[in-house]
Amino acid sequence: MSLLRLFVLLLSVACTAGRAPRSDTFLSTRSSLTRIAEAASSDREIIGRFGGAIRTSFYKALNDIERSIVYAEQNLRRLSSVSRSRSLIDLRKAIVAAAKRGNYKIGREIFAIARVLEDQASLSKSPKRHKRATDDIINYIKEKIGDQTFKQFFNIESGTSLTFVLDTTGSMKEDILQVQDIVRELASPGEDEDGFHTFLLAPFKDPEVGPIESFLDKGEFLSTLEQITVSGGGDCDEMVMNGINEGLQETEAYSPVFVFTDAGSKDIEDKDTVLSLSQDLFSPIFFFITPSPECHGYSDFSPYNDLADETSGQVLSIDKSEIYRLQNFVKSTGVGRSEITSGDEFTTGDGLGKRSAGQTHVRNFFVDDTVDNLVVTVNFNTPSGSSYLLSPTLVLVYPTFVSAFTNMRLYEIEHPPPGKWTLEAITDTGEEFTYKANTVSPTNIDFNYNLITESRGRDVPTKHAIPGELIKLQVDIVGAEKSIRRESSEVFLTDTSGNVISTVQTLQVSDEKSHSYDGQFVVPTQTFKVVLYGETMTGYPFTRASQNTITPSYGRIETFHTDNLVRKKVLPPGGRGNLYFKFTHYSDTTSRFRVNFTNPGSIITTTAPVQLNVRKNRSKFIRLQYDIPRDVPDGTEFRITILVDGGDVKCDYVYTVLVATLRQ
Questions:
Q1: Looking at the DSSP assignment, which residues form a beta bridge with residue 199?
Q2: pLDDT per residue over 571-599, tens digit each?
Q3: What is the tens place of the pLDDT at every residue in 43-60?
Q4: Are 595 and 611 a contacting pair, CB within 8 Å?
Q5: How far apart (Å, rounded) are the C-alpha atoms in residues 576 and 21?
């Protein structure tokens, strides 16, 4: 081979390095669903400055489907034509059952498996064949569940739920009255555009938790709230984590969870379970805390701050009489939110810009010209803090709400001018403040991302990041993507305080048949977020931060299927069997681990905890036996959270199964 030809070959390899071609099955699925979303959006008034008619939430649903298609292509073995036909009939019925019960995320996972199975049925890989197979199953689903449910199932119209996790002990009477007023406002005429289609109520006290109730009608939701009676309590901590976990079992993906309490958590050992499930659902957790004076100095609210930071939620400490004044804040979480920036800072008293014994902290952030509504919150742990928000032209913006209890400030700006905004926070020595800026719109610029690792010679998504590992990152910019300059994209890693840890190395800014952006980075040791930077077509900078944090760990949990994948995701009423998971670790500190898991619906018969002995760089299987009661309705979803810890290893995995009747 000549040197010239060798050079051209190496150049070609270098130019395509990092490019991640997408599955043909996914591309045909995306094309068909996008056409439907475009047609549906043209029937309603376009929301957003740039006419981004398709909701950002639709692209989130597509990301769910793509991950599930890649997973199915990796794990779904080829079946005989008879078995395949039977499985496809089962899967179609299971999808419909899930959709009718409002279990959209698991329904989309089953839809992805069905799409892969259909494409396996044909030796032809032509685009027309993929399109016919896609349209066939989409039309079947739409016919069986109806147009409105179909749109919610694929997030073409909002398919989010609103979950209230409510402390019902004796001290919460005034809080509950305020919550009723919020729901009363949501249920008033003309309030149909809040974005919620399901309403969930998860009450808790000590020791009772639940039962959770689900409502499609706001009036029924309000009526149930009005019938709640408070009782019990007497100590300062309650079963908060169990209450949140109960609510998360029914919460739809990408939906907010609001926790109303004046108490600390008595069951803090369940915090990791709550975090794992909320991050799997991409559900931010918002805490409305009204601390009881009797428990001052006793209750610890710091675990709430951790959960809020790690899910892009917030902790708002306010007076009981102020809850109702945050009704617009609650409603905005159903419209669509993307994080521009967030962070926290502690005043040491030895910096510049001192005021009395404290400091002035200055934070700048960019608001681009696609932002319809800007929401900024600043939280203080004492009333002595204060803040100022300045527009790009240095105009002082006044808060729409200031708490008399903690001086927490909420700024809500409609059609904010683009440019560099300035937030100044003033705190006394020893005090901490947190801040967050969000864009609120159904058509936000946002992004999906996947961490990519190699498995059996193929790139597959993973949720686990091993410290020191070189890992790939795929980013898809969604929302008003036609309004941005794709080539300007840069990606950073930041810590939970908003400080930049490192820059992601760009491998490829890709075309529509691959990803918007491919990169790679060395996994840090600390918890981090992914932050996207870019420019709009008009030259304004924008930043968006990932909703979830990523906490690196020296362990990894994966599913392991010994037989038909279909039979491990869809379980029949009365069915018995085993679920298998593979645990691998890379730690030098221990070889002994403890496995815990949740048991929704009491379907798992294995006793927790399970003890494992695993050498470094080796794997061991975890077996969970299940027994589904015969009276469980078709379409019921169970979300099982698995936690493994030992030494410096702590990792988790959420495995979801759907109950549906299968052909023998």
A1: 162, 215
A2: 999 999 999 999 999 988 888 999 999 99
A3: 444 444 444 467 788 888
A4: yes
A5: 39
